[in-house]
Design goal:
The chain is mainly β and 110 residues long. The protein is built from one helix and seven strands; from the N terminus they run E-E-E-E-E-E-E-H. Strand 2 and strand 3 form a beta hairpin.
Length: 110
């Protein structure tokens, strides 16, 4: 793990980010809880499937899915040169393994 950050707010968990890999190859995973007045982009008709999740391509190198009121995005461009970047299939396999805590506001459950 290269870096990890969590932002807590008035409602508890707001967002978290991980950067995994090494100095040459890495990816970022960001989880952001939707605010009550914000509508998440619907990924129900996503372009791809990652286990139980439907995934949408959100621009070049970014895959996004919605899980229990959170937007989960994987950025795969951290693999340096475009020719050396992780494939979309590798990124989907990573998202397939995503499991969200039942209670995001209970830090002990993470």
């Amino acid at each position: 793990m290269l870096s990890c950050s969590v932002t807590l707010g008035d409602r508890g968990f707001e967002e978290g980010a991980l950067r995994l890999g090494d100095d040459e190859r890495w990816f970022s995973l960001r989880v952001e809880r939707a605010h009550p007045d914000t509508r998440l982009d619907d990924t129900a008709d996503g372009d791809l499937s990652a286990g139980p999740y439907e995934v949408r391509r959100q621009g070049d190198g970014v895959l996004t899915m919605v899980v229990d009121g959170c937007s989960v995005s994987l950025v795969r461009e951290g693999w340096g040169d475009r020719d050396d970047s992780a494939s979309e299939a590798e990124a989907v396999r990573l998202l397939t393994g995503y499991r969200q805590a039942d209670d995001l506001d209970d830090v002990a459950a993470w």
